[in-house]
Amino acid sequence: MKKIYVSPSILSADFYKLGEEISSIEFAGAEFMHFDVMDGHFVDNISFGIPVLKSISNTHHMVNDVHIMISEPLRYASRFVDAGADILTFHLEALNNEEEVLKIISIIHEKGAKAGISIKPNTKVEELDRYLYKVDLVLIMSVEPGFGGQKFMESALDKIAYLDKYKKEHSLSYLIEVDGGINDITAKKCIEVGVDVLVAGSYVFKAKNYKEAIDSLRG
Ligand code: DX5
Ligand code: ZN
């Protein structure tokens, strides 16, 4: 059976004890740590950014899985990699044309990180086709980005299935990640259609036992 990775989103952590929360998810078996950057412009919320990432990225051994929901990803990409992003995932909707998308992917790669591309629920998955041979990860949003704790949108499942089929048909190796409304039930549906990485915020951090929550996502 293929490996399913879990990426708890620290957006739902208790920021008063952030260091402790990070150690707890690592101890509970998370392979990735999901870091949601929101600029109050691309999405209707403001979270945290480069200085916070810099403080925490070296304090654990998980993959720093950084998801930038910002209007100007090209302007900030290299600074996020310098701050410790191992995977930097930007939004297709935040770039103006193909040239910009290819440019940000090469900036991320030149800096030595992996490049991820993400789409919001209303963006067609086929719009990613021309970039799939270049990226290391594709992030399918299963809620409208901006807030944790929303309900999973089933439309993400067809997109995941499409990406899994495309990957096999073209012998590609990108990881397929899903983000938003993931719990034990929705995780199972995503695994069935080919997901590799499960982002989960509230389901993990609201749980009494992080290890049980993380294990239950893998099924
Ligand atoms: C939403 C963020 C998600 C969010 C997930 O904009 O990208 O990563 O934190 O939270 P849950 O798992 O609670 O839906
Ligand atoms: Zn996210």
SSE inventory with pairings:
Layout: E1 5-8, H1 18-27, E2 32-38, H2 50-56, E3 63-69, H3 73-82, E4 87-91, H4 98-110, E5 114-119, E6 137-141, H5 155-169, E7 175-179, H6 184-192, E8 197-200, H7 202-205, H8 210-218
Parallel strand pairs: 1-8, 2-3, 3-4, 4-5, 5-6, 6-7, 7-8
Helix pairs in contact: 3-4, 6-8
Bound molecules: D-xylitol-5-phosphate and zinc ion (ZN).
The site of zinc ion has 6 residues, from β2.
What can you see in these coordinates?
By secondary structure, the chain is of the alpha/beta class. It is built from 8 helices and 8 strands; from the N terminus they run βαβαβαβαββαβαβαα. The protein has helices at 18-27, 50-56, 73-82, 98-110, 155-169, 184-192, 202-205, 210-218; strands at 5-8, 32-38, 63-69, 87-91, 114-119, 137-141, 175-179, 197-200. α2 links the parallel β2 and β3 (63-69). α3 packs parallel to α4 (98-110). The mean pLDDT is 98. The structure holds D-xylitol-5-phosphate and zinc ion (ZN). Zinc ion binds at residues 9, 34, 36, 67, 179, 199.
